[in-house]
């Protein structure tokens, strides 16, 4: 096994690559740890060529090209196929020591799920599955107190799944419309009755799994879709189990650079999917001051409103019980959808914190993405990138934000629902 530790990697963490590597950068062999050769690469991009692990190819991890047409039919896509399955253990999920149980890995070490996700994403990058190399995109901090980020990405197609007026395409059962080629599916995630999490090298996809699919037009390093799927129905509502599972994924990855996003562009009219990627720095919304709305009880759920920020935002945080926070947030989101309120979610801090961004009720207008709500903006031409100002971005966020009166009602709703569980 070879471990690559990049000094200036955008994620800032070691990658445990589950295959052999050919290092083409200016690298120096540093030391051997438990039989693993360690390189240090002094560059942002890893100049390596990955060779896929042989047991994956030998056991049909990648569906052959002749089966790509079967992606159009849900019954053929996964039926009889074997994939790597990461099974999240049940240990401490319902206990008040939930995050303590998940934090057995030291922060300086890399978790198994983090290593596996990044190794598979890098593998697809070197196989040419992406439309461009996002690691070469220019990024700058916009001058001003907010410290918004702007990225010049001339090849990016903003949310290539989105259609006109913010609507999203339907997909047949669990076949994700964003996946055009079978190799874009990296692996699957599922719950487990076993106490500890485990990676099963080859297995059939269980019911109620989450597909991990690359975004071929990535916003940042490691950009993937997390798509809940089931054999007999589509996920069209953000239920408690899905929120819990995705939050659990963030906790299992245990990397502070990892963010998970959810965009509710039009309530009740789109299938549920999440997006996730790695950011080298916290997003601007994470630095803003807050006003405490609910101080956690025995369950440890803390609710705050973010102040001095252009889009109305509420943060939820727990240090004890992931499951209870997920149930509370899913119920809150259900009420917002009933009111036809557009919203976004951002999961950060290894699953301990969730931001709820509140947009105006849908009125045939375009919505903005969760990373924009967090303060990360994409530009497709040099002129706009060079000329962008903080005032322009403040105005953009403000024009989508929920109004003050409705925000007060949402704050009361959040506290009322969370209080039922946080006793």
TrEMBL record:
Protein family per UniProt: Belongs to the GDPGP1 family.
PANTHER family for the chain: GDP-D-GLUCOSE PHOSPHORYLASE 1, OS12G0612100 PROTEIN
Keyword Translocase carried by entry: no
Location of the GDPGP1-like C-terminal domain: 284-420
Name of the protein: GDP-L-galactose phosphorylase 2-like isoform X1
Position of the signal peptide: 1-24
Molecular function (Gene Ontology), one example: hydrolase activity
GO cellular component assignments: cytoplasm
A Gene Ontology BP annotation from the UniProt entry: glucose metabolic process
Domain GDPGP1-like N-terminal, residue spans: 113-277
InterPro entries: GDPGP, GDPGP1_C, GDPGP1_N
UniProt keyword annotations, A-Z: Cytoplasm, Guanine-nucleotide releasing factor, Hydrolase, Nucleotide-binding, Nucleotidyltransferase, Signal, Transferase
């Amino acid at each position: 096994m070879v471990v690559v530790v990049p000094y200036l990697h955008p994620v800032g963490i070691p990658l445990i690559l589950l295959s052999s590597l050919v290092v083409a950068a200016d690298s120096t062999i540093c030391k051997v740890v438990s039989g693993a050769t360690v390189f240090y690469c002094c560059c942002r991009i890893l100049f390596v060529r990955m060779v896929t692990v042989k047991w994956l190819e030998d056991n049909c991890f990648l569906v052959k090209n002749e089966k790509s047409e079967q992606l159009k039919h849900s019954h053929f896509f996964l039926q009889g196929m074997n994939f790597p399955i990461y099974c999240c253990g049940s240990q401490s999920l319902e206990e008040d020591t939930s995050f303590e149980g998940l934090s057995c890995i030291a922060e300086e070490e890399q978790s198994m799920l983090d290593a596996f996700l990044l190794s598979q994403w890098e593998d697809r990058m070197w196989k040419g599955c992406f439309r461009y190399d996002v690691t070469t995109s220019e990024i700058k901090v916009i001058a001003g107190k907010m410290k918004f980020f702007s990225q010049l990405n001339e090849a990016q197609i903003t949310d290539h799944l989105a259609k006109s007026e913010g609507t999203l395409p339907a997909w047949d059962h669990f076949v994700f419309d964003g996946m055009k080629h079978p190799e874009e599916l990296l692996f699957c995630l599922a719950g487990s009755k076993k106490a500890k999490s485990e990676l099963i090298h080859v297995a059939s996809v269980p019911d109620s799994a989450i597909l991990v699919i690359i975004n071929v037009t990535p916003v940042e390093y490691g950009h993937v879709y997390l798509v809940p799927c089931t054999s007999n129905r589509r996920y069209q509502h953000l239920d408690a189990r899905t929120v819990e599972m995705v939050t659990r994924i963030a906790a299992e990855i245990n990397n502070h650079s990892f963010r998970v996003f959810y965009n509710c562009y039009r309530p009740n009219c789109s299938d549920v999917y999440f997006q996730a990627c790695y950011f080298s720095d916290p997003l601007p919304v994470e630095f803003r001051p807050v006003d405490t709305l609910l101080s956690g009880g025995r369950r440890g759920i803390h609710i705050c409103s973010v102040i001095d920020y252009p889009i109305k935002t509420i943060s939820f945080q727990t240090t004890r019980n992931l499951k209870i926070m997920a149930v509370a947030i899913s119920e809150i989101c259900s009420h917002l959808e009933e009111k036809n309120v557009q919203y976004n979610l951002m999961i950060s801090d290894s699953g301990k914190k969730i931001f709820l961004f509140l947009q105006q009720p849908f009125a045939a207008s375009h919505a903005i993405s969760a990373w924009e709500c967090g303060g990360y903006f994409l530009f497709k031409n040099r002129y706009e990138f060079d000329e962008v100002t903080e005032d322009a971005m403040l105005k953009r966020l403000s024009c989508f934000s929920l109004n003050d009166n409705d925000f007060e009602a949402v704050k009361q709703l959040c506290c009322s629902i969370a209080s039922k569980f946080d006793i």
